[in-house]
Amino acid sequence: MRNEAPPNWQPNSPSVIAAIMATCQRFPDRPAFIYRVGDNELTVDYTKLREDVILLAKAFEERKVRQGSRVMLLSDNRYAWIVTDLALMSLGAVSVPRGSETPTQELEYILNHARCTFIVVETETLLARHQEMLSSHKEVKTVFIIEGSDKHTLFSRIYAYNDILKERTLSDDDFHRFDQMVAAITQKDLVTIIFTSGTTGNPKGVMLNHRNILFNTETLPPVIAITEQDLWVSILPSWHIFERALELLALTWGSCIVYSSLKTFAADLVTYQPTLVATVPRLWESLYSKVLATVMARGSKAVTVFNLLIKISIRFRRTQRQLRGHLPQFTRSNLPVRLGRKLIALVEMTILALPYWLAQKKLAPLQEKFGGQLRMAVSGGGTLPAYLESWLDAIGVRIANAYGMTECAPAIAGRGFNSEIFGTLGPPISVTELRVVNSDGIQVDPGIEGEVEVRGPQVFDGYIDNEEENRKAFTADGFFRTGDLGKMTIHGELVLTGRSKEIIVLASGENIDPSRIEGAISQLPFVNDAVLVGQDRKGLAALIVPDWDKLKDFVMERFGHSEEDVKDLHEDHALRDRVKNEINRLLHAKNGFKPYEKLQKIDFLKHEFTVGEELTNTFKKRRYIIERKYKELIDRLFK
Predict the structure, then answer these.
(1) Which ranges in 426-539 belong to alpha helices (H)?
(2) What is the pTM of this model?
(3) How far is CA 52 from CA 35, 84, 503, 600, in A?
(4) Which contacts (CB < 8 Å, 24+ apart) does range 322-327 have?
(5) pLDDT tens sequence across 508-523
(6) What pairs with residue 421 in β-bridges?
(7) Is the N-terminal amide bond of 328 cis, ω within 30° of 0?
(8) Which stretches within 166-299 are classed as H helix?
(9) Which of 296, 392, 438, 558 lies in disulfide reach of 397, CB 3.0 to 4.6 Å?
(10) CA-CA distance, 56 to 473, in Å (whole number)?
């Protein structure tokens, strides 16, 4: 069933492209993008952005790209990506975006399922990788290459952007025709079909229209207080809905985007001094690990001092929030209890005031790693572990913890400047209706866990050509079933507790959320990644992707072994068990874990997970791929 959004919300602009073109005319001289080509840094203002979009739209139109044309956009982040996206929007064409690492088999599935008749490919090398598959698709009329030499010949269907953009002059008629095309686009027109990353099987094509995206670009600004003065450093894949929505949001409000990369991200934060950054939990985990590694290199005394500073800061900020009423409440307590808690918090704050002041002075240099101007960091694309959120808060980074899905373009809830309740995802965005229901579909009271369901203008109409999944996706009254587990506070903030489709059910019947345990394991300095396994087994085990050097250091320091003793942890079962016992120390009852949530076995993987295989583009684990790839190893663990 289609989403039946509340009819009372209407966008201020008729389309995403109209909103952004209006910004181009409102801030003609402001920088829109900063990016690099080799060693050269280039800045594009809003005037040039508009002209580039018009030029490319004109070139596409001359080659028969029309309203409703399905165009696969196979490329990673670059300025030409957003120009292509906007040019297609202006024509009313439908983009089907994907990253360069997409396997050929998956690409063919998407190409067929979306019925694409045009393809835009980033490079000649990328085209060559898929050439055999593409050559058999006669329904593809034209292939465009973003970066490449002149390619077109008389009987060829391949054009490089160099071919189609040779003529770069625009007449008054060109501007007028473009404005007419943009004016014809409505909020109900389809913008894009984004295929989900496939954490649980074949990707599904999510159809998003202008209304879905406009709801995000028009209602999110108060959450992050965005203005034309803001500067973003961007690192996520542009085709992913989280990054794409934020880029469209930035362009709608006239701010500047700096395209960065994993390699240059840390340096770019210092160089460009962003006011806003958006990234996924895995990159925050990487930052956490790098900071700890730097501290550990200074010796055990430095580690002890650093951990103490963090603990003091976390404790002080928690008691401060207790005093202000900024902690999540799931049940109502009477006045004497509330006053008693506030009194205890006040006493504790008084005791910690001086140590906290000293801790903040010592931790202040860490903020310089973000450029010193960062006022908010948006975390989305996955659940931010509680320990990581507290750690970032302790070092003075304000996190806008966001919750969304591709199907919601993507925003559902967010805790930015609109909410001070720490440890939550904040309230639903604007007019969004959100409820938590039990297994019978009945809405539950605050504090009780259930599945999160959502309805609003941002919710998509359905998956392309997939009636079975569409029936499963929506309730009879039009709410979208997110598949996420959560609970509400008494004041309406959302807390996620797990993913219903990822729940591990032990042979004894206990249901276990793997992400919470994996997050705890990842606190150890030698753990790069961890995957919990144990479906239908008697207990749990973990596959760990280690940093081998740090693991050896850990074993030598903790157990007194020499380097010779730890050459092959795959074979040394006794030593593995000792490491497992250290991990289980984190999974203690005092940390909220139950006895059956401890690990019975662990093993170490020799290779890291890679994007496009074990990981999605936003670094989420594709569990079914991992479990299939390491099936023999998992079976051995449970023998």
Answers:
(1) 467-473, 514-521
(2) 0.82
(3) 15, 9, 47, 59
(4) 323/349, 324/420, 326/420, 326/421, 326/422, 327/421, 327/422, 327/423
(5) 667 687 888 988 898 8
(6) none
(7) no
(8) 172-184, 210-219, 221-224, 241-253, 265-272, 281-296
(9) 392
(10) 37
